Structures are given as C-alpha cells and as structure tokens.
C-alpha cells in the first residue's frame, strides 16, 4: 500500500518525492507475479473529490516506468479514496487510474 497525498486540480499523483524504495517494491511485485503469485499495489488517496490517479513522472520517472511495467506484467493496480479520522480510516470509492 502506498499513501497518496499529492493533489493538483483534483488529480492525484504518486510519489511526491523520488522513491527508490517504491520502485524496488514494484519490482518485487513483478517477480512475485512471474512466480505464479497474485500481486497488487493499493494507492490509498487521503483526500476527497479526486478525478483520477497517475504516476508522478515529473518527480520520479523510474517509478512511473516500473508501475507501467507492473501493470503490463499482470500486477493489479488499485486506487481508492478514504476518509481519515482520529481513530479510524474508512475505505472510500475507487478512483480511476491513468497510466
């Protein structure tokens, strides 16, 4: 799971800073899928009213390339909104993904 907090005009993106660790996680999911396991990544958007999600290629193009490669390899890419309060997180509606 990756928490998404970057938003611009109703469009959310990940990452908000370069993430070698995030790219490494995607490569591990690709390997798991190649070895016959189910694999997926959940982007959890911590804001309301988002129109769509996409990788932030301007900040980290390698992560964007890896996310597209993961999707092409059969890794399930999920994105959901959520409501956060002081004592809980409630899963919201799915958010469209543009790769």
What's the oligomerization state?
Answer: single chain
Globular, elongated, flat, extended or rod-shaped: what is the shape? globular
Strand % is 35-45%
Indicate the percent of residues in helices.
25-40%
Overall pLDDT confidence: 95
Low-confidence stretches: none
Total count of strands: 7
- Order of strands, main sheet, comes to 1-4-6-7
User: How far apart are the termini?
Assistant: 17 Å
Element-level helix/strand string:
EEEHEEHEE
Q: What value does the Rg take, in angstroms? A: 13 Å
Task: Tell me the major beta sheet.
Answer: 4 strands, mixed
Protein structure class: alpha/beta
How many DSSP helices? 2
Write up what this structure looks like.
With 99 residues, the chain is of the alpha/beta class. 27% of the residues lie in helices and 35% in strands. The protein has two helices and seven strands; from the N terminus they run E-E-E-H-E-E-H-E-E. A four-stranded mixed beta sheet has the order 1-4-6-7. Strands 2-3-5 form a three-stranded mixed beta sheet. A hairpin with a 4-residue loop joins strand 6 and strand 7. Helix 1 (20-34) packs parallel to helix 2. The mean pLDDT is 95.
